[in-house]
TrEMBL record, chains A, B, C, D:
Residues 35-54 bind DNA. It comes from Leucobacter tardus. Gene3D superfamilies: Homeodomain-like, Tetracycline Repressor, domain 2. SUPFAM superfamilies: Homeodomain-like, Tetracyclin repressor-like, C-terminal domain. Keywords: DNA-binding, Transcription, Transcription regulation. The keyword Metal-binding does not apply. Signal peptide: none annotated. Residues 12-72 form the HTH tetR-type domain. This is TetR/AcrR family transcriptional regulator.
Length: 205, 205, 205, 205
DNA sequence: GTATAACCGAGACGGTACGTCAGGTCTTGAT
DNA sequence: ATCAAGACCTGACGTACCGTCTCGGTTATAC
């Protein structure tokens, strides 16, 4: 029954002020410019109050992203290629946003050090996306699209899909994303999956 | 003839001491622990001396990586798939090293802000690797392996190859690299290239 | 009512530690050896904490002297000569201290540059001493010792009294102060004042 | 016969360039702004070359003043008061110059630490001025103006004369020097000397 | 209603790093 | 041996963040 804690509860207004201030800073300057001092000043509060809610700037940054992109839907389109394309479209949209472009590298570095942020990220971002792919593959197997599921490394499929998007965002030369980028890379991942179970790729679309 | 410039020359010993100190720190703690103070302390020199050589810790970190992984060879194996596999093998080896695992995210974030580091990185890391792929594709086109070169986006091909490696390194859940990872991803990139020019993929290897 | 200001108050212990450290350094090495780094190290605190209290080393040095010599009493002995002698005795005692010998020149140089230190010095050291002399002259005028006050330049009288003491301290050849130095120079200043209003000097004492 | 040193001799041009650069800097910013770096840059030479000529900035500063004010003439006006007035006029002129106002305090502080500068200053500035006063007193004694010379402390007389000038320069509130300042203070010193040998002061001028 | 527990603003605090400046010395090549 | 150039070590500068703390004052529940 989630018992009420004694004492004065957190002011929700301050929390949202901080989240908004962080989002603005992340949109503008990006991760390197996120300092607790600046955030609390802009949110009109103080360091101590900040640290009651978050363990540090990286934690808050993560929460901003989680609020924006935390929930992934799972759509059953009826075919593996269709499902993978859906997943890829959602990820391209998420990762190509200014918020991600400016902060992904910084957060990935923060994860290396900070266990808490790493766990949160894994749980809220990585796991759901991996699950979407696993479900798509399972459904394909049930439909008989794939001979044998065990031959497919879900993790590898995921990296094959999200990797090119990340590369395009993080590497300086990376251009934009044209309308068919998601389709092309999803097809390639699809071929990869088929090849893994020994099925020759059908006619290219 | 590289004329001698006037004045006392840089002490090469100090330079190598700094590079070595940086490499140790990068191997151990990774990018976040790279501070100018710590480096000069360990190298037995001073901040001012450091700043005569490097613009900051990120610049030095880049130089360490450039010294280790700067030069890429170009091997002509006689087939596009063979060439791409060579490229991929080299990149897997480079990126899976502890040095890269611990520092790639930090450097990518540094690049967002620091123009100089971004240019150096682009010039010394990105451009040569892109060039390797371009040469492989050009040779394949000459051999008639590919119908029309213009249909192939070199940049996209590069992202399709390096992306999965990066994802595996930077994302917390990323496992290791088994012996055939390079082969599999190179094959997938190869299929992607063929599909781009409308050629059906041959029998999977 | 001296309302309490918000926030954590300054630690008085740190303040006194700094003042004591400064006094020791001023006594030992003198002004040139006063560095913020050394002071905070000896007081066991940090630069930032120092700068919350003082604008710089010269400010702190001034505060040390102000605490020691800040307040001057005003004694009415009944005669101008007596009053001037009292003032002179106090100034000889103050300026002949090791603290002043070692730091006066440095502080005078600091004053040239730093407006704040100049103002503090003027207000807390110069003004009160000038006032003592002015009061003595006013009382003498009321008693009829001096014909007309306006004829006396208080500033000049002050310089005539404090000047010789300063010269003796700052100039390298300056010897010590014998017991009658204050009396002799006060008499001379007295004669100067009388001469300024056209009164012949009486018998030398 | 002042044997010629082996090797290349000092460039006199550099020496004068340095002296001139120093004078400009002393006139403008004053002692605190005298840095070896700035001086050699402005003189178009280098630190090493500077240190072959001078032991430090304070040494050079002293040389500038010595070149300007080093030699004092000795005039015999026929009376003690006349001679003292001459001395005082010269000192007022010297000390009231911008060059002295901006650098005296700094040099006095430098003297406290640097033995060499102290010796140079004593020898070239203090000793000659003391000697002028001593000669004036000796002549007065020969003329019978003073009963007995031994009763007069030359050092004290010097401090009584130069002290007020110094006070007026160094103390922040010190005003300017009107035309009769030298006369008035010389008279006062004269009275002091007479009093010291027990002679009543004559009618004020 | 009145404890009590936790919040909140303000800002000091020790720690660590930043990038710069000045001092005085040393190394290189040239005169 | 001087000179220009500039690296080098030492040590100090004033500032920025970090995460914690100490104040005085303010809510919300819980007794």
């Amino acid at each position: 029954m989630a018992k009420r804690q004694p004492g004065r509860p957190f002011s929700t207004e301050i929390t949202t002020d901080l989240l908004e201030a962080a989002e603005r800073a992340m949109e503008r300057g990006g991760y390197s410019n996120l300092t607790v001092d600046t955030l609390v000043r802009e949110a009109g509060t103080t360091r101590a109050t900040f640290y009651r809610r978050f363990t540090g700037a990286s934690h808050l940054a993560f929460e901003v992203l989680a609020a924006k992109f935390g929930d992934v839907g799972d759509t059953d389109t009826g075919s593996l290629l269709g499902d993978l394309t859906e997943v890829q479209r959602a990820d391209v949209q998420m990762l190509s946003s200014q918020l991600m472009r400016n902060n992904l590298a910084g957060l990935l570095e923060a994860m290396r050090t900070d266990d808490q942020v790493r766990e949160l990220f894994t749980e809220r971002f990585l796991a759901p996306r991996r699950e979407s792919i696993r479900l798509a593959v399972d459904r394909a197997a049930e439909r008989g699209e794939l001979g044998a599921v065990p031959g497919i490394d879900i993790e590898e499929l995921r990296d094959l899909m999200i990797g090119p998007i990340i590369a395009r965002i993080l590497l300086p030369t990376g251009g934009g994303f044209d309308a068919e980028f998601a389709e092309r890379t999803a097809e390639t991942a699809h071929r990869h999956a088929l090849a893994a179970v020994g099925i020759a790729t059908p006619e290219p679309a």
